[in-house]
Amino acid sequence: ELKVEQNPLFLSMQEGKNYTIYCNYSTTSDRLYWYRQDPGKSLESLFVLLSNGAVKQEGRLMASLDTKARLSTLHITAAVHDLSATYFCAVISNFGNEKLTFGTGTRLTIIP
Amino acid sequence: GAGVSQSPSNKVTEKGKDVELRCDPISGHTALYWYRQSLGQGLEFLIYFQGNSAPDKSGLPSDRFSAERTGGSVSTLTIQRTQQEDSAVYLCASSLVVNIQLLGNTIYFGEGSWLTVV
């Protein structure tokens, strides 16, 4: 069974600082997704990473994928308050069906 | 419509009643997913459809839960004899391309149906 783990689970950081959220998964996969969820809201797609070494950037967020290490990172640069949310990674295994398995989520709070 | 549409957006029901939740995916999307998210928790996979068939039903919590999809479009998730532990947000998602890994098939989520069983 595919397992997806994120760390940290909770993260408080000051505005202007940099930090990284890690997503590890347990099986071979070339497809990894990052989502953002605001309280009481649905999931907003941030990035789709489809190959080893893939890197995507949008504003202050940058995501990368290392399929050999089964690791994806979401890097936050010079954090601002608007980035406060819960961030989820999700993986589709290369084997079997198209089930999208989510990580536990990282609740990010940016402190002024 | 422009996005994944779910209804009802909120539902309060009495324990023991049946409920139906509807998902209208983005037009043309072949894959459809149902997830459940309890308050402050992560996302629990329920079922996914490729067209009208459901290759993976492994996430359905019990035989009180069932789902169908007709015409490769609208899907209905039915919960029979609801229990208080069924209270959660039920999220539907859809994507255009399945099983073609080289294409960036973004999976889009709806706003969810908030179910409260009292």
Strand content of chain B: over 45%
- Termini distance of chain A? 41 Å
Radius of gyration of chain B: 14 Å
C-alpha geometry of chain B: globular
The total count of strands of chain A amounts to 11
Structural class based on helices, strands and sheet pairing of chain A: mainly beta
Mean pLDDT of chain B: 90
3D structure, described in words:
The complex is a heterodimer of chains A (112) and B (118). In chain A, 0% of the residues lie in helices and 56% in strands. With 112 residues, chain A is an all-beta fold. In chain A, the strands form two sheets. In chain A, strands 2, 4, 5, 9, 10 and 11 form a six-stranded mixed beta sheet that branches. Chain A has a five-stranded antiparallel beta sheet with strand order 1-3-8-7-6, with no helix packed on it. Chain A is globular. Chain A starts with a strand and ends with a strand. The mean pLDDT of chain A is 93. With 118 residues, chain B is mostly beta strands. Chain B has strands spanning 5-7, 10-13, 19-24, 31-37, 44-50, 53-56, 65-69, 75-79, 88-95, 108-109, 113-117. Chain B is globular. The model of chain B has no long low-confidence stretch (mean pLDDT 90). Classes of the chains: A mainly beta (112), B mainly beta (118). Chain A binds chain B through residues 30-31, 33, 35, 41-45, 48, 50, 88, 90, 94, 97-105, and chain B through 31, 33, 35, 42-43, 45, 48, 50, 55-56, 58-59, 91, 93, 98-99, 101-102, 104-112.
